[in-house]
């Protein structure tokens, strides 16, 4: 992605002015997974910031959901933001949820899609251990409803990780950490307004996971996208943006009402 900056220990994409939306990518995805969101929201009065998460660069002791949530808080402080909207997909959604649990005072709102945090096998199964290219291609295609979304570039990226021993160890460490940091008990106490956008055909975190998030999170709204797998913002970017924007407008209205009282 263009507009990527490096400052201190942070590398991130930034565009637009206004309320900050910080986007947390998943294990398999880089910053480009959110191209649609990154192009649309800066024209609508938001500042979109996508940091590169230190998934493979932290020490193994800091390779876990809680440490990544702390890293996000440090990044928010580094940027000088008061309160933010966090958007996360897959592992990024889990980190966003954990950040919300730990630092609710930093949060204006939370948006999750295909998020881990409730469903035990979300990380383990979807992530190929290693194996030949065709196997990994098949696994990558499984993430989407339409297998053609898994471009050669995406498959190559996953293949490279699966064949890098250190990255593989870290991936498995994260998968275990995601299971350990199950959030079922925490969610009912989390009152930050939350938008849940889910693919109806998600094989990685199936639709019942979205329903459970919606049930457990007291201040949540659930939106579905049809013919859509685990990465809604990639597979149906326009629909994803429309739903997210609709929810943000409601959030904004509620926020204004609160601040006027």
UniProtKB/TrEMBL annotation:
A molecular-function term among this protein's GO annotations: hydrolase activity
InterPro entries assigned to the protein according to its UniProt record, in alphabetical order: AB_hydrolase_1, AB_hydrolase_fold, AB_hydrolase_sf, Hydrolase_4
Superkingdom to which the source organism belongs: Bacteria
Serine aminopeptidase S33 domain sequence ranges: 21-235
UniProt entry tagged with the keyword Hydrolase: yes
Keyword set includes Nucleotide-binding: no
Record's keyword terms, sorted: Hydrolase
Protein name: Alpha/beta fold hydrolase
Source organism (scientific name): Flavobacterium suzhouense
């Amino acid at each position: 992605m263009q507009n990527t900056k490096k400052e201190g220990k942070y590398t991130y994409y930034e565009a637009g002015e206004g309320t900050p939306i910080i986007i947390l990518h998943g294990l398999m995805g880089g910053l480009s997974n959110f191209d649609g969101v990154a192009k649309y929201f800066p024209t609508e009065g938001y500042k979109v910031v996508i940091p590169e998460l230190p998934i493979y660069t932290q020490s193994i002791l800091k390779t876990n959901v809680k440490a990544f949530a702390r890293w996000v808080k440090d990044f928010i402080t580094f940027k000088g933001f008061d309160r933010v909207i966090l958007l996360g997909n897959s592992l990024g959604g889990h980190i966003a949820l954990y950040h919300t649990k730990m630092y609710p005072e930093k949060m204006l709102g939370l948006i999750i899609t295909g998020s881990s945090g409730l469903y035990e096998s979300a990380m383990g199964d979807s992530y190929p251990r290693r194996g030949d290219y065709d196997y990994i291609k098949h696994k990558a295609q499984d993430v989407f409803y339409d297998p053609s979304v898994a471009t050669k570039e995406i498959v190559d990226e996953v293949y490279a990780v699966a064949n890098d021993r250190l990255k593989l160890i870290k991936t498995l460490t994260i998968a275990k950490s995601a299971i350990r940091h199950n959030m079922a008990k925490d969610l009912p106490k989390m009152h930050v307004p939350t938008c849940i956008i889910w693919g109806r055909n998600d094989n990685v975190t199936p639709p019942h996971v979205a329903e459970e998030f919606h049930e457990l999170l007291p201040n949540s709204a659930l939106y579905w996208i049809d013919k859509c797998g685990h990465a809604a913002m990639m597979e149906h970017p326009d629909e994803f943006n429309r739903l997210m924007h609709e929810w943000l407008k409601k959030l904004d209205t509620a926020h204004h009402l609160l601040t006027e009282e």
